[in-house]
């Protein structure tokens, strides 16, 4: 009996030691530079880098293979290995990169992630702001800085605060001028409802968070471009910010008056787009990526666009500057210069950079701009891009947005869409944001 | 068996057990200890270094409105869920407890939902209950106004409870049915001779004899509902407005969406402790009750 106990104990001890050594080994590997494990042995004169790409229905593996082939042809001596992260399994590449970091097998170039999160963690390579190629980008490279250091750049503009509308329904309802203020917007919705149309269509999942982000950011980006800096410094709170409280009140009023589609929170994003294109509602608040779907859709009406109304009627188009979709370089890359070359090529090359912005409905932020054949809607939106503010609550307003801030925005958006003003006063809902920021301290 | 043979046999038993035990330790035991360890640090899951913060994360959780709300939501599912599933399970088991050709069919039919993954069930019921889904299409056919089962704050938790009840009631029915069929029939014969009616037979014989099955089923359902994740994630993702956000959903959201890995770990430990303590307490109470009823 004693002997069997000894055998059991010995085996258990072996097992524990074994698992502990696997764990310790993993941690030790994690501390090593990525290229040790990521890249196969390269030829002496050849540099090998790996690139985490973002596979979507538009950005396919074939497309990335073409980019790599063109890059390698222009840069003999640099070989690129593609590492696939897929949009079908998550909303961003954050979790993919986190897993790679934990495993110690990290690509040299990353794309489609929250730059601030990884910059804060010290995992991003500081790009050379004096690089002559950065002079091709409109604005100052420091606009993309995180805590005074530049890790990413703004090669494109992605308008998010767009109100796409059905021109036929607007005409039938007798709306001749596009609304610029909230009062005008409510009046337009009233006309649409009176004409028998559903004025606005929206959905569940992440969409309510996007709507809150865009509605609140439209006035904040125009009036308080350093809002996050002020919040972190204790100079501003959401509860006492008129742009926030008024924005929430405006949305609640729209819900109370029945201007949104019924059962909005039960509709997924994929259905939502299809329902608007099928003529189920007059206005569809969404980002510029919708223009790519609109261009491909068969429908018997034209789609127009205007920006989310503001409190004073002065136009302000909320946009993201590609802060996330623009590639970044891993801090411990063995070949950061080669990786940086690939990062620039991907979004700035006249052929592939243009293709990249085309498939995602983006607009070039380069001077001269990259061009691609645009639909009428894309051309209409292009006329609004000069009013775009590359700032929003989710990503940055002065400082970067609070970590995970999309979560409380989604919660507040869902509460408003579900219950309108019954969900609580605007200040009560704004307090959810303050509480969230306080919980991070 | 001689002592030597017994030792050899034990040795080989251990060797054969080692692969399964190793996997269990690697994917269950070790992560629990790691989770506990990470709970004492400030770490986003990305940085190379972690900062030791002692019990800060555990203390912070006690004042976290979102965590406390998710705990309340979890109890909303687990307490009524356990009662409803077990009551329905016993009722269904008693109704189909006849030794006939159909018994096996009922067992298979009731057990069937248990064979489908939570994710698949979530998608199926989402298609049924969404605003433009099958149920509302039927209601529209009968000129009844559509019901927002998943988008209304008051309805969404009940819709989730309905789906989970549908998923689990068949399984507990099968367990209760097995318990019922183990009750000696002569007990009922004696009761009938003594003039006991159906209700008296149920309270005096059936229910006490089901006590062991009841203990197993209650613990199974209660612990399962305290850990609800997959069906909710697919159907509502914890929404609308956090109305269906359980501790499990909150833990994943905090740890991964908000990049507060160590704080999420502390929430997971709370979840483990709460489930563990309540499970032990419930088991103790029900075991005592079993002993009383059978004696």
CATH architectural type of the largest domain in chain B: Orthogonal Bundle
CATH topology of the largest domain in chain A: D-Maltodextrin-Binding Protein, domain 2
Rg of chain B, Cα atoms, Å: 24 Å
Assigned CATH architecture of the largest domain in chain A: 3-Layer(aba) Sandwich
CATH domain class name of the largest domain in chain B:
Mainly Alpha
Strand order of the largest sheet of chain B: 1-2
When the domains of chain A are counted, the total is 2
Listing every helix as H and every strand as E from the N terminus to the C terminus, the arrangement of chain A reads HHEHEHEHEEHHHHHHEHEEEHHEHEEEHH
- Strand elements of chain B, count: 2
Q: CATH-wise, what's the superfamily of the largest domain in chain B? A: MetI-like
CA distance, first residue to last residue of chain B: 39 Å
CATH homologous superfamily identity of the largest domain in chain A: Periplasmic binding protein-like II
Averaged pLDDT of chain B, please? 90
Care to give the gist of this entry?
The complex is a heterodimer of chains A (441) and B (295). With 441 residues, chain A is of the alpha+beta class. Chain A has helices spanning 2-31, 35-38, 61-74, 94-103, 115-120, 167-172, 182-194, 207-223, 227-232, 242-256, 269-277, 290-296, 336-348, 352-359, 376-384, 406-419, 426-439; strands spanning 47-55, 78-86, 109-110, 156-159, 162-166, 283-286, 303-307, 317-320, 328-329, 363-364, 388-389, 396-397, 399-400.
């Amino acid at each position: 009996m004693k002997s069997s106990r000894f055998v059991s104990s010995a085996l258990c001890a072996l097992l524990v030691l074994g698992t502990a050594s696997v764990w310790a080994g993993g941690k030790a590997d994690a501390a090593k530079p990525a290229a040790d494990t990521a890249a196969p042995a390269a030829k002496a004169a050849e540099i090998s880098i790996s690139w985490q790409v973002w596979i979507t229905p538009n950005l396919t593996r074939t497309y990335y293979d073409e980019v790599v082939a063109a890059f390698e042809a222009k840069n003999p001596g640099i070989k690129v290995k593609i590492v696939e992260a897929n949009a079908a399994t998550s909303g961003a590449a954050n979790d993919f990169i986190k897993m790679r970091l934990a495993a110690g097998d990290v690509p040299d170039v990353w794309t489609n992630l929250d730059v601030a999160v990884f910059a804060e963690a010290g995992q991003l390579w500081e790009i050379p702001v004096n690089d002559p190629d950065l002079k091709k980008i409109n604005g100052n490279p420091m606009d993309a800085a995180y805590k005074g250091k530049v890790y990413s750049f703004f090669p494109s503009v992605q308008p998010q605060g767009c109100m796409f509308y059905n021109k036929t329904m607007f005409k039938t309802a007798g709306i001749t001028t596009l609304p610029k203020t909230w009062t005008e917007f409510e009046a337009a919705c009233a006309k649409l409802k009176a004409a028998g149309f559903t004025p606005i269509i929206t959905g569940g999942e992440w969409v309510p968070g996007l709507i809150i982000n865009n509605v609140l950011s439209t006035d904040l980006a125009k009036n308080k471009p350093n809002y996050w800096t002020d919040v972190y410094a204790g100079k501003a709170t959401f509860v006492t910010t008129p742009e926030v409280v008024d924005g929430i009140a405006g949305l609640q009023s729209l819900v109370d008056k029945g201007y949104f589609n019924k059962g909005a929170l039960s509709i997924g994003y994929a259905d939502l787009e299809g329902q608007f294109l099928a003529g189920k509602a007059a206005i569809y608040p969404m980002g510029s990526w919708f223009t790519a779907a609109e261009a491909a859709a068969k429908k018997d009406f034209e789609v127009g666009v205007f920006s989310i109304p503001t409190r004073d009627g002065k136009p302000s188009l909320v946009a993201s500057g590609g802060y996330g979709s623009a590639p970044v370089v891993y801090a411990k890359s063995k070949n950061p210069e080669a990786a940086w070359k690939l990062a620039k090529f991907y979004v700035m090359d006249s052929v592939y950079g243009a293709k990249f912005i085309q498939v995602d409905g983006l607009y070039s932020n380069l001077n001269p701009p990259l061009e691609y054949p645009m639909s009428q809607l894309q051309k209409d939106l292009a006329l609004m891009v000069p009013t775009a503010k590359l700032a929003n609550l989710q990503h940055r307003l002065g400082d970067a947005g609070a970590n995970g801030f999309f979560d409380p925005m989604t919660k507040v958006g869902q509460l408003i869409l579900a219950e309108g003003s019954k969900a609580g006063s605007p200040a009560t809902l704004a307090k959810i944001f303050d509480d969230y920021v306080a919980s991070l301290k | 068996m001689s002592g030597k043979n017994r030792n050899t046999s034990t040795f080989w038993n251990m060797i054969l057990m080692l692969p399964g035990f190793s996997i269990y330790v690697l994917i269950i035991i070790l992560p629990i200890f790691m989770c506990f360890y990470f709970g004492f640090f400030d770490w986003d899951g990305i940085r190379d270094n972690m900062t030791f913060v002692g019990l800060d994360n555990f203390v912070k959780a006690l004042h976290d409105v979102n965590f406390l709300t998710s705990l309340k939501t979890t109890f909303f599912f687990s307490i009524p869920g356990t009662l409803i599933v077990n009551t329905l399970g016993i009722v269904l088991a008693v109704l189909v407890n006849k030794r006939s050709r159909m018994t096996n069919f009922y067992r298979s039919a009731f057990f069937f939902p248990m064979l489908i993954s939570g994710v698949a069930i979530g998608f199926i019921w989402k298609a049924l209950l969404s605003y433009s889904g099958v149920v509302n299409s039927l209601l529209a056919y009968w000129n009844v106004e559509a019901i927002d089962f998943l988008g209304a704050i008051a309805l969404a938790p009940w819709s989730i409870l309905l789906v989970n009840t549908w998923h689990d009631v068949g399984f507990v029915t099968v367990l209760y049915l097995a318990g019922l069929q183990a009750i000696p029939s002569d007990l009922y014969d004696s009761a009938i001779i003594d003039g006991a009616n159906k209700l008296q037979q149920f309270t005096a014989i059936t229910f006490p004899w089901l006590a062991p099955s009841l203990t197993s089923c209650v613990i199974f359902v209660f612990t399962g509902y305290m850990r609800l994740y997959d069906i909710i994630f697919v159907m509502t993702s914890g929404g609308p407005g956090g109305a269906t956000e359980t501790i499990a959903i909150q833990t994943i959201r905090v740890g991964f969406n908000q990049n507060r890995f160590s704080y999420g770990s502390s929430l997971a430990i709370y979840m483990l402790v709460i489930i563990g303590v309540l499970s032990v307490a419930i088991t103790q109470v029900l075991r005592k009750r079993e002993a009383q009823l059978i004696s």
